[in-house]
Write a structure and sequence with these properties.
The chain contains twelve helices and two strands; from the N terminus they run H-H-H-H-H-H-E-E-H-H-H-H-H-H. By secondary structure, it is mainly α. It has one domain. Strands 1-2 form a two-stranded antiparallel sheet. Helix 10 packs antiparallel against helix 12. It is globular and about 50 Å long.
């Protein structure tokens, strides 16, 4: 009886621990989403003051990387990523997050911020497509339904009923390409980065994105010296970036890329709300119809799994719950 009682107590404690981990992971992703939404609004205000997008993003990622390097040194944690994960982190930093950010912020020139944010954050659909291509079985009908619903939402917010096109075609294309790049970043981070710590992974991702954008900025002659309050805003989005990266990687380690993609729907909602309040975006009928469709499609796709599968045990000495 004592063994049964102890076993029951242990099971209860384990269940409680799993619930705690899920709730904490959810809170991390929600925090990252709100911070990233705030970054979009601040960046939009900066680019409206003729600050070039490549320069803004290069400054943002480089300063964020420096902040994370200082914190890692202060905490006496490693600056170097795990040996076999360095190339992966450079790849997802440059071709994933860095490229996604560049495409998204360039798209903001061609339509309302709230509308374009919702197009970009249809990325969970592309996460699911990537999962299918990588051999994770998903029920075909549910996936197809989710994709159709999500893209119907994009069509509605782009083509406003009775009002013509709300976003220029180039803006739509840039936003959708940004969604694909961000899906690649999430999928790559979830599948390829396991041994590197949260802050170290964030440092490498931000640093590689920053270096790539510095090269792009210099080669295109897009550098421009900020003035006055622009400096404060630039450092503000850099600090928010460092914090958002940390929350995102830690949440990604706990929840996996598919669930993180679903929870990421908080981000377009916060971005759209802030754009309407601060930038005075005018929501249209198409926006009102398309928003729930995109969210429904993203959440459905993100939670659509054929069957639970056993996860491989972590390598000896690695605990996914350890910060």
């Amino acid at each position: 009886m004592r063994r049964v009682a102890r076993a029951g107590l242990a099971t209860s404690q384990d269940a409680s621990r799993r619930v705690h981990v899920d709730l904490f992971g959810t809170a991390l992703i929600a925090a990252a989403s709100v911070q990233l939404g705030a970054i979009v609004i601040i960046a939009k205000l900066l680019t409206e003051k003729t600050l070039p997008v490549p320069f803004l993003l290069a400054f943002r990622f480089v300063v964020a990387a420096i902040v994370m390097a200082v914190l890692l040194s202060w905490r006496k944690e490693p600056l170097l990523a795990a040996h076999r994960e360095r190339v992966a982190l450079i790849g997802i930093g440059t071709l994933g997050y860095g490229l996604a950010a560049l495409l998204f912020f360039l798209s903001l020139r061609y339509g309302p911020t709230s509308t374009l944010a919702l197009i970009v954050y249809s990325y969970p659909i592309f996460v699911v497509i990537g999962s299918v291509l990588l051999g994770q079985g998903l029920p075909a009908r549910l996936v197809v339904t989710a994709i159709v619903v999500g893209f119907c939402g994009v069509v509605f917010i782009v083509w406003t009923p009775g009002g013509g096109v709300a976003v220029r075609p180039l803006g739509v294309l840039l936003a959708l390409l940004g969604a694909v790049a961000y899906a690649g970043y999430l999928t790559g981070g979830g599948r390829l980065v396991h041994r590197t710590g949260y802050m170290t992974a964030s440092l490498w991702t931000s640093g590689s994105a920053g270096v790539a954008l510095v090269v792009f900025t210099v080669s295109t002659g897009a550098a421009r010296m900020p003035a006055g309050s622009q400096w404060v805003m630039l450092f503000g989005i850099s600090l928010l970036t460092a914090s958002a990266f940390y929350c995102l990687f830690r949440g990604l380690r706990r929840l996996g890329s598919v669930k993180v993609a679903a929870l990421g729907t908080v981000e377009p909602l916060s971005t759209a709300a802030l754009a309407i309040i601060i930038l005075h975006d005018q929501p249209t009928l198409g926006f009102a119809i398309g928003t729930p469709l995109i969210i429904a499609g993203a959440v459905t796709a993100s939670f659509a799994r054929a069957r639970p599968h056993r996860q491989k045990a972590p390598p000896q000495g690695l605990d996914a719950r350890t910060p």
